[in-house]
Amino acid sequence: MKLRSALLVAALATSFTGTAAAQPVLMSPEWAQAACLAWNRDAVLTDKLVESGWVKNDKGRGYKVMQVFRTDCGERPTAEMRIALKSDKAMCVYGGNVETAQLDSGADYVMSATSARWLEMGRGEYGPMKAMMFGRLGFSGPKMEAMGNMGPFENFLLLVGKVPGSTQTCPSM
After folding, report:
1. What is the pLDDT of residue 22?
2. What is the C-alpha to C-alpha distance for residues 44 and 153, in angstroms, rounded to an integer?
3. For the chain, which residues make up each domain, given as ranges?
4. 44 Cβ partners below 8 Å, 6+ apart?
5. CB under 8 Å, gap of 24 or more: what pairs does 62-65 form?
6. Pairing state between β 89-96 and 79-86
7. In CATH, what class is 24-162?
8. Residue 112 host element (H or E)
């Protein structure tokens, strides 16, 4: 009986470990949740985007929207993050499904790239300036605002390398 109980416990532990260790799909709502947590642990993102005034350009909604997607998986955003000023920090207050249907091009961002390019940027092989100049990163939003925040913008791209995400499948819509 003890052996049977021990085997059952081992089997359950293995099944839970396997599930917990599975990576979310890159640019999925689950990945965006994890990216949101990573954002909030990054001092460059949370502090510098307040100092520059970036987070305050929210068009009176109380948050900015960033939507992302992998172009080899379609042509529509698959994940959304919202950034708001909280306790004098630019904090990610939402990461998940795309919910904002009407973006404001003067405040909000949409970024896209192939899976391979996202991974290159996540490894720090090149930053946002090169990515945009060579068409490796599709970008819409307030370009001058982004240009004034290249350091934090680079840290956002590096989140792709810090937040595990599988590219074996595409995010489901």
Report:
1. 86
2. 9
3. 24-162
4. 151, 152, 155
5. 63/93, 63/94, 64/107, 64/108, 64/109, 65/100, 65/103, 65/104, 65/107, 65/108, 65/109
6. antiparallel
7. alpha beta
8. strand 109-113
Burial class (CB in 10 A: 0-12, 13-18, 19+), 8: exposed
Exposure letters 116-131 (e unless 16+ CB within 10 A, then b): ebbbbbbeeebbbeeb
Q: Do strands 64-70 and 109-113 pair parallel, antiparallel, or not at all (unpaired)? A: parallel
CB 69 within 8 A of CB 79: yes
Average pLDDT of the segment spanning 138-153: 94
Cα separation of 152 and 166, whole Å? 24
Q: Which residues contact 30 (CB under 8 A, 6 or more apart)?
A: 24
The two tokens of residue 136 are 């490796």
Show the tokens assigned to 28. 């999925």
Coil, strand or helix at 164: coil
11, pLDDT greater than 80: no
Amino acid of residue 141: G
The per-residue pLDDT for range 44-85, each reduced to its tens digit, is 999 999 999 999 999 999 999 999 999 999 999 999 999 999
**Cα separation values, 110 from 18, 72, 78, 101, 164, Å:** 33, 16, 10, 12, 21
Residue carrying the six token digits 């900015």 = 64
